[in-house]
Design goal:
With about 350 residues, this protein is mostly helical. About 40% of the residues lie in helices and about 5% in strands. It starts with 9 loop residues before the first strand and ends in a 24-residue tail after the last helix.
Length: about 350
């Protein structure tokens, strides 16, 4: 093969074809020409040379790419695909409709932080500015994890079902459960009031309780829940009763502290299942259902999406989204009838006989 004619073909008796083997900009072209006659050398040469020129023409033609979209267009599509909109309005107002999504740099984000959140703490800036911007940029670059449709049914208790469970837990002797200090009742009330997971409940410490604000600091877990303050409704506080000033707030029914293992949330299941069975519920009602119940209740009453995210402690908002659509319209009134009030500001007291209505934000 000539040095200046790398396309020159050679005859392969084994394949009964004229073959070429050359490289163009690092890409190797090694193939048969489909000319099955050794005597057609000139035809093979012409075809090989045309292939060589075509390969170089393609290599030297600039590849045009679509211009990156504006940050606004990318953000709109991000929200349409299920992304969180909560903090984007302020960001879009700052950057305007024409800034491209790939033009926003670390310096631009720092300037936006100074303009939008001049007095905010670094964690607030990270959560409400940096994370949403990066989420939109990752979405535009195709790096965002594709969401699967959430078709799972979330089991939660109605106020009437929860009342039945609480009544049984308040009378452990009647079902043969040795629980003299009603520890199972206290745990159920805590989870119904806060949405804490079973493991979080068993590891909750008395020194993290603030009776003045009815808030409890949960330290979170490494993989599931974020550390956060949870607000207890008055009904939950009344059912829990005495809270120690320090140490484990919710020991086992025998009064001993739990020894945590890898699957620590399951340690309260024995006593809980006994209460559940006596209350007439099936195995689909687990301790974790109490967490689902609280979030279903609270959102149905307040319609406060931000509070749902803060109280739930999820690392992602995907799971929280299902609590926006699984409860009936009258649930808030039924909750009030049973003494459950998740509103931070219930408003002025009502007079006896006056219809109670829930204020919408």
């Amino acid at each position: 093969m000539g040095r200046n004619e790398p396309w020159r073909p050679t005859w392969s008796a084994a394949k009964n074809d004229w073959m070429v083997d050359f490289r163009v900009e690092g890409k190797r072209f090694r193939r048969g020409l489909g000319i099955r006659d050794e005597n057609l050398r000139q035809t093979a040469l012409n075809k090989a040379q045309a292939l060589y020129k075509s390969a170089w023409g393609e290599a030297l033609t600039p590849r045009t790419k679509d211009a990156p979209p504006s940050f606004k267009d990318a953000a709109d599509l991000y929200v349409q695909e299920g992304g969180e909109k909560r903090f984007l309005d302020k960001i879009l107002k700052h950057f305007g409709p024409h800034v491209r999504v790939d033009e926003i740099s670390h310096v631009d984000i720092a300037r936006a932080a100074r303009a939008i959140y001049p007095q905010a703490k670094p964690e607030t800036v990270r959560r409400q500015l940096r994370v949403p911007i990066r989420a939109v940029q990752n979405f535009a670059a195709g790096k965002r994890r594709e969401k699967l449709p959430d078709t799972r049914r979330t089991r939660w208790l109605t106020p009437e079902e929860a009342e039945n469970l609480l009544v049984v837990a308040a009378n452990p002797d009647a079902i043969g459960l040795r629980d003299p200090n009603l520890q199972t009742l206290r745990k159920i009330a805590f989870m119904l009031g806060t949405g804490a997971g079973p493991g979080e409940t068993m590891s909750a410490l008395g020194e993290n309780w603030n009776p003045a604000t009815r808030e409890w600091w949960l330290e979170g877990t490494k993989t599931v829940f974020r550390a956060r303050y949870v607000l207890l409704p008055t009904r939950a506080v009344e059912l829990i009763g005495h809270i120690p000033q320090s140490g484990p707030a919710f020991p086992a029914p025998d009064g001993q502290s739990y020894t945590f293992r890898k699957n620590r949330g399951g340690q309260m299941a024995v006593a809980f299942n006994k209460v559940r069975d006596a209350a007439g519920f099936g195995k689909d009602v687990t301790p974790y259902v109490l967490r689902h119940t609280r979030h279903s209740w609270a959102y149905s009453m307040t319609k406060d999406w931000g509070d749902l995210l803060d109280q739930g402690g999820w690392n992602r908002s995907d799971t929280a989204n299902r609590y926006r659509k699984i409860t009936p319209d009258d649930l808030g009134h039924r909750l009030l009838a049973h003494g459950w009030d998740f509103r931070r500001d219930p408003g002025p007291p009502v007079r006896f006989g006056e219809k109670v209505s829930l204020r919408r934000p």
